[in-house]
Structure formats: structure tokens, C-alpha cells
Write the C-alpha cells for this entry.
Amino acid sequence: MKLWSILGNSQKLDGGAMFGNAPRALWERWVAVDAHNRIDLACRALLASPLNGKTVLFETGIGAFFEPALRERYGVVEDRHVLLDSLAAAGFQHEDIDVVVLSHLHFDHAGGLLAPWAEGRAPQLLFPNATFVVSQAHWQRALHPHPRDRASFIPELPTLLQASGRLELVEGAHAQALGDAVRFAYSDGHTPGLMLAEIVGPERVGGDAHGGVVFCADLIPGRPWVHVPITMGYDRCAETLIDEKRAFLEDKLARNVHLFFTHDAGCALAQVVRDEKGRFGTAQEHVMLLARGLAA
């Protein structure tokens, strides 16, 4: 099996919103900020093939489905569907994808499922041969969003996914489409039922899997958020997320599971480390993955 990091459309979002109650004097040490207080964010997907005999894409980024006015409002940089270009550069087309795993259905993670915006055209679903894997708990949130994050969902998307006949809702540790090759855990701090997908590593220690890769989604958007107290203003419950993050990082450190970041503009994959004061950090950072082996 090989892994590719697949860049989608990038964003520029308010740094204060991305770092919650952390002051700018702290977070501007970690990221560059422009004159509008915005920071650069990637919308990066992970491609794995063959995984359980299939070509699997973890998330699709924000895509190019927004009309021009909304694209500007939400800081989407490019007007073309960058994810499709990045897949092609890796030797794949969206028709080649057998499974799309979605941590959650906020538009910056699921918008890439849709064809680029065109005047007068209704939203159209791409990936015609893929099974779409979503958590059952988050699916209910998407169907009945809270006013806090209603604007983060694409209203037409649930209907399109249901109509495809290829939607798999997951409640436990595994999906039928992926078998034991991918293990799921869940988080509620950012949004209910956020699904954290771990590609199970090849090593076994005491009966447990070591050496895998986990898609961190919005539990840990990038390296600065590895620091446990740092959360986003977009998170629904910062204290819940901090507790979930601490347990998550302790587990991944113990099992040498590497972290894959979707929003970090400068890093796709890193190893978890912990210093003498108990603070988590990262090492062995990779800007991109290009047909990388899981155990490389």
C-alpha cells in the first residue's frame, strides 16, 4: 500500500477564529498572518491504494462549489477544483476512487465531493464509483444542524449522498467498505460524531496495532494545535475537545501512530513526541507524501 497527500483548494481564514482564546501575540509565533489577520490553511486529503484492495480517499477538502461571492467570503483562494488536479498529478481520476471517508460534512472537508460551481447549475456529486463513509452520529447532525454550525453544512449534500445509493453510515470501529484495515474513533468537541480514521499499522505489540497513520481532521488541524490547550473558535466545546485531544495523543504516542494534518499549510505528516515537561509536539515532519509506504 502507498500513501499520497492530495492538496485541495486552499483557504485564508481569520487567525483569531482558528486559535480560539489564544492571543495573537502567541499564535503569530507559529504561523504567518496577513494584513487582514488571516492565515494560510490547506485542505489536504489522504489517498491510500491499495487499502483493503481498494483506492481510498480520506476527505475531499473544500473544493470549488461556492459561487464567487461565497468563495471570497470564505477565503477560498483558487476558482478551479484543485483536488481533481492533484489526483491527476498522482495518477488518479475521481472515477478511480472506491471509497471516500469523511470525518464530517462541514464544507471545508466535504465540498470537494461536488463539481465546480457553474452559473445556473445545481450541485452535482463527483466520485461516481465510490462508497461514502460517514459516522451515524454526525449524519444526524448534518440532517438537523445546530444554529452554531448550520452555515458550515452544504444543504444539498445529504440528499445527494442518499440518492447515490452508496452511503455507508458507521457507528463502531470499522466500516463494511474497509474491513479491519481502517479503525475509527470518534470525537464530539468540534462537532458531534467527528470520525477519526486510522489506517492500521503493520506492527502488533501486545495484540494492538502500532505504526499506522491517523487522519486528525479538526480534532488537530495542524502542528500548532498539537499543543493540548490550543483549540479553535469553531469548536463547539473547547473543554471536551481538549480532553479528547489529550487521550488521543497519548494513545498515538504509545502506539507510534503518525498524524496526518488536513489544514497545516506546511506539513502533511508528523510523528508525535513529548518533552520533559509533558508537552506534546511533532517530529519527523513531511511536507508531502508521494507514494510513501505505510512503514516508511
Residues 2-293 form a domain with the Metallo-beta-lactamase; Chain A fold (CATH 3.60.15.10).
